[in-house]
């Protein structure tokens, strides 16, 4: 399935419907099946001890799958997370950006499933892995059309 939104269109749409994303996340790369995003790490993302917090890593994983669904389906802002499983494997570096590589495993009519690996920038060892499922509003419904 081809992309409905390219990287620039996706970034612009996210800014329109989810403006808080602009301050914390950036899209590095987008293909038909993958997206690479980064957490623009700031003091607010750190926990005591100077590492990136779990909630910040969850947010990065969540935004990745959301963005991937939008990239494939287009302007359907009301897709929502229905399930998440997350494994924390290593201590993330607090003084670097967090990079997430998301692969869309399934995109159906009502559900999308994504797998996300997260790394401290400059390292090839994953610090966390997440699996997320998103619910997609029915085509043609008022909820599916936003913006």
Automatic annotation (TrEMBL):
The keyword Hydrolase applies. The keyword Electron transport does not apply. Pfam families: 4HBT. Residues 49-124 form the Thioesterase domain. Keywords: Hydrolase. CDD domains: PaaI_thioesterase (cd03443). SUPFAM superfamilies: Thioesterase/thiol ester dehydrase-isomerase. InterPro entries: HotDog_dom_sf, PAAI_dom, Thioestr_dom. This is PaaI family thioesterase. It comes from Ruegeria alba. The lineage of its organism: Bacteria, Pseudomonadati, Pseudomonadota, Alphaproteobacteria, Rhodobacterales.
